[in-house]
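Shipment paperwork, digital attachment
Item: protein structure file
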Amino acid sequence: MSAEPTERWARPVLYALVGLTLLRVAALALSPTDLFVDEAQYWLWSQTLAWGYFSKPPLIAFVIRLTTSLVQTDSTMAIRLAGPFAHLATALILGRLAYRIADRRAALWAALTYLTLPSCSLGSFVLSTDTVMAPFYALALLGLVEMGMTRRLGPALWGGLALGLALLAKYAALYLPGSALVALLVKKQARSPLRLWLIFFSTALIILSPNILWNLSHDLTTVRHTAGNVGWVQHLTFAPSLTAGLKFLAGQGLMVGPILVCGLGASLWRGALHGARSLLIALALIPLGLVTLQALIAGANLNWAFAAWLPGLVLAVIALQNGPWLKINLVLNGAVSLAFIGLTLFPYTALPNQQPLLMRLLGRADLSEQILDMAEAKGHIPIVTGNRDILADLVYTSRTRPVPLYAQQRQGRPLTHYELAFALPTGLIGPVIFVSPIVPDCPGGPAPLAQPLNTDIGAYANQRLFAVFTRAECLPQL
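Attachment content:
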């Protein structure tokens, strides 16, 4: 494509990016979906800002506090509002990155391709730490490339700042410095002066330091939880599963589309191992390889490799931009993006004889309202449950309804934030509502009354749950 046609397409591409983002924001405002369990927990954290939390670093709580303060409401839309804008920012930054290592055409394709990824469609409607991390991780990537090309102080400073913020969003951002160091040891072309690297990493460390200090003063709470997710690192148990590894790699095609997976392979096949591209190859393949190994040994969630696709997408776009594949990919992923907007507006859409496609975002608030109504009818007696999902939504839904909420006692170390923040008081006696799939025995007293909860549609469909009117002395431990 000549320079003139590329110039002509730049403005329509920008309009398309902004237009898709605004459509997603409008869908958020109109959507009747409930918060997912993680979103409800992040909202709870945002009510008491700190430099760290039980399972995640703090930036997502700060972001939610910012958006809810701007909109002056704790609605689901306000909690999720940062998502579409974070992905728009990431798309523009990746476009700039593609421009720096290729050309304007690659920049336009990178921005369009990113914003229509299936993972971005989901991340624009369900706020996650990946979404909050993405623009800062992409900016850190750009800082590394600019630092190598210009050998100036500026990119080392703002690139390190971006990396520090990415780490405050999610520890998966550690893939960037780890992979970059490997690339530097292997490829001389990717090297910058040592002083710039020291400035880059020192700046990131300074930004992350409040969270490090918080962890040190809180028994390494977040670090322990993150290590526990890896599983085999904590327990040193190895159970390789080739099937799990293959499923994980196939699942990456669902996250970004199979064409981009092939495009990343094409960039390797064509030997894009020079200069800045060699650095991006390391930043894409090392995280992808590590998470695939984790999937083989102990299982892995598909989004754990999300950081690999920020550099990986740029490489794939550069490899595929001269053929028809990016256009085909844009049509397919664009259709998915529009379909997801439709699903968000009409979340009860379902296949014949099936639950709604967005069932995990439905039925949570309704269940909470049922339980809260019962507690209020009994004189605002406490509610106790060992189900993290139920307690998370109860906390959010009851923000204007003063009902005591407690997590069921567990033997040993707490496994969730709620078991710490809403621990059942020692020696609590008297009537409570116990939400559970079982009806506990209460020896020496009247049998508890159990009322089945309506879970016909949504996240708790096909689950038997009871609101048990019993006494705190009868509650079992987990």
